């Protein structure tokens, strides 16, 4: 194989993702090749991320990704993952992807939070192709066409301008291969960005560090611990290993959570760690926000499309929602060096987690609760007046959160998990203490333990009566990755699996 095969694959992906009629975007192939994935990240501009980068890129902040594992070897995540672990029993000790249905999910999520981008591929030199004999060229080109079909399906010809393919065959050169990259890219690179890594997916906080905690979102877990235990262990590990922010692009169909999570999430709250969680996806059957996004203190993220309208498929609703961010269309990194188009609040969540990292880096004196306050109070208003059940406080505005003026923080405006536990778990404890009273005694304990008349059936069930037991019965709660259903629609992939052979 010749040097430059990887660049050819990149160009192919660019052609597939661009309308066949949009010839100018394909003719300038080097620019498209370098920025094709970056160009799809509209939120970098629309949400003021590039403006925020003038102040900070998230240096010194650590984001823990509790998910299906992160491929730290991906070019766009090079140097980003500084530690990790596995709590599923089926992954590696570094938090790499666990072999299961959604192996790709954790890497997609991590890339949107803190992807570094990757060096742009240089186009192959003309003489590399020109030096082939006719027989060698025909054989190489046949392999190339076969790769297209294997990767993109039998209908790939409908997506690519046939004249461009014919031109490439006749000239053995990429369209626009003689154009200079540097001059074109200079305008695309914001101040403070890494000019040596202009291609690929870049996260909202590209200088933040990542921790990867891998789990298996299945019950029963074929490798050991159930989902409930994995979540508790993962949150605790993240806090104890230096996380400033915990990203949880996972959720359930239940608003309640097991009591075993109280200690773990309280541990995060008491150690000033901000937990950011996804609201859920309607297409996955989650019409209302579910745990862990319903836990007090958690920053809950809804999803909107490119126009800022709430996503019909990719966003649940509920009073727990704090802020909305891009959930469709999204791009992200895949294990083994590829990229893909996808959607879901799974992707909106790391965008907000990355924004939180920028706020923390710019304002290190703020507590986690104050960081949350800046993010929600500076959001662009959307939906109904006040806190909307779909948009929360509005759509994320990263530039304002980092550099703007936020209203004064009032702790009374934000419920804490500690307060919730004191009110709600106390009722369960008091009930449990009197379980030895015979059911046929006709009495229930009064406030001081003295008998009193049994309440009538119509008034026997109070909020506190059912709130605790409801939480207990979900001990076997099975979380599903928000990606299931509608979250990942892999429209296209960009794979670099031939990397070593290409450079031969």
Topology:
Blueprint: H1 5-17, H2 23-27, H3 29-39, H4 43-46, H5 49-53, E1 62-67, E2 81-86, H6 105-114, E3 116-118, H7 126-130, H8 134-152, H9 162-171, H10 181-186, E4 199-202, E5 209-214, H11 227-240, E6 245-248, E7 250-251, H12 260-270, E8 274-278, E9 299-304, E10 323-326, E11 330-334, E12 338-342, H13 345-362, H14 368-377, H15 398-403, H16 417-433, E13 443-445, E14 451-453, H17 463-472, E15 480-481, H18 483-487, H19 499-502
Parallel strand pairs: 1-5, 1-6, 2-5, 6-8, 8-9, 9-10
Antiparallel strand pairs: 3-4, 7-15, 11-12, 13-14
Polypeptide structure, described:
The chain has helices spanning 5-17, 23-27, 29-39, 43-46, 49-53, 105-114, 126-130, 134-152, 162-171, 181-186, 227-240, 260-270, 345-362, 368-377, 398-403, 417-433, 463-472, 483-487, 499-502, and strands spanning 62-67, 81-86, 116-118, 199-202, 209-214, 245-248, 250-251, 274-278, 299-304, 323-326, 330-334, 338-342, 443-445, 451-453, 480-481. It is an alpha/beta fold. It has three domains: 5-39 and 121-193, no CATH class; 43-115 and 203-410 and 478-487, Rossmann fold; 416-436 and 455-472, no CATH class. A hairpin with a 5-residue loop joins strand 13 and strand 14. The longest helix has 19 residues, at 134-152. The termini are close together.
């Amino acid at each position: 194989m010749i040097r430059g095969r990887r660049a050819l694959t990149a160009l192919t992906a660019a052609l597939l993702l661009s309308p066949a009629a949009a010839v100018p975007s394909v003719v300038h192939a080097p620019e498209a090749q370098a920025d094709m994935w970056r160009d799809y990240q509209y939120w970098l501009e629309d949400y003021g991320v590039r403006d925020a980068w003038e102040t900070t890129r998230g240096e010194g902040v650590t984001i823990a990704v509790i998910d299906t594992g992160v491929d730290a070897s991906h070019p766009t995540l090079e140097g980003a993952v500084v530690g990790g672990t596995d709590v599923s029993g089926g992954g590696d000790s570094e938090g790499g992807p666990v072999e299961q249905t959604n192996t790709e999910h954790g890497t997609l999520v991590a890339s949107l939070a803190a992807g570094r981008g990757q060096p742009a591929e240089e186009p192959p030199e003309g003489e590399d192709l020109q030096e082939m004999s006719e027989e060698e060229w025909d054989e190489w080109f046949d392999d190339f066409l076969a790769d297209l079909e294997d990767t993109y399906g039998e209908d790939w010809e409908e997506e690519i301008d046939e004249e461009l393919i014919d031109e490439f065959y006749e000239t053995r050169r990429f369209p626009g291969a003689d154009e200079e990259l540097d001059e074109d890219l200079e305008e695309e690179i914001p101040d403070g960005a890494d000019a040596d890594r202009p291609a690929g997916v870049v996260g909202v906080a590209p200088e933040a560090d990542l921790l990867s905690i891998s789990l298996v979102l299945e019950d029963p877990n074929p490798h050991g611990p159930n989902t409930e235990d994995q979540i508790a262990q993962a949150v605790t590990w993240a806090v104890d290993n230096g996380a400033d922010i915990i990203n949880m692009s996972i959720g359930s169909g239940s608003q309640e959570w097991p009591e075993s999570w109280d200690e773990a999430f309280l541990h995060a709250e008491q150690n000033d760690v901000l937990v950011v969680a996804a609201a859920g996806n309607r297409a996955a059957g989650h019409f209302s926000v579910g745990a862990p996004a319903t836990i007090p203190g958690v920053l809950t993220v809804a999803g909107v499309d490119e126009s800022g309208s709430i996503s019909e498929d990719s966003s649940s609703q509920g009073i727990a929602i704090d802020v909305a961010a891009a959930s469709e269309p999204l791009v992200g990194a895949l294990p083994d060096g590829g990229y893909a188009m996808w959607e879901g609040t799974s992707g909106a969540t790391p965008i907000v987690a990355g924004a939180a990292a920028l706020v923390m880096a710019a304002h290190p004196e703020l507590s986690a609760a104050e960081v949350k306050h800046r993010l929600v109070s500076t959001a662009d208003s959307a939906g109904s007046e006040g806190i909307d059940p779909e948009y929360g406080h509005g759509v994320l505005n990263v530039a304002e959160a980092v550099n703007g003026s936020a209203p004064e923080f009032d702790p009374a405006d934000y419920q804490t998990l500690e307060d919730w536990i004191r009110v709600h778990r106390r009722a369960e404890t008091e009930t449990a203490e009197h379980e030895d009273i015979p059911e046929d005694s006709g009495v229930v304990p009064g406030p001081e333990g003295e008998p009193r008349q049994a309440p009538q059936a119509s008034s026997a069930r109070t909020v506190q009566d059912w709130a605790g037991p409801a939480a207990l019965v979900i001990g076997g709660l099975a979380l599903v990755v928000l990606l299931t259903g509608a979250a990942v629609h892999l429209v296209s992939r960009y794979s670099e699996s031939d990397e070593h052979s290409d450079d031969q």
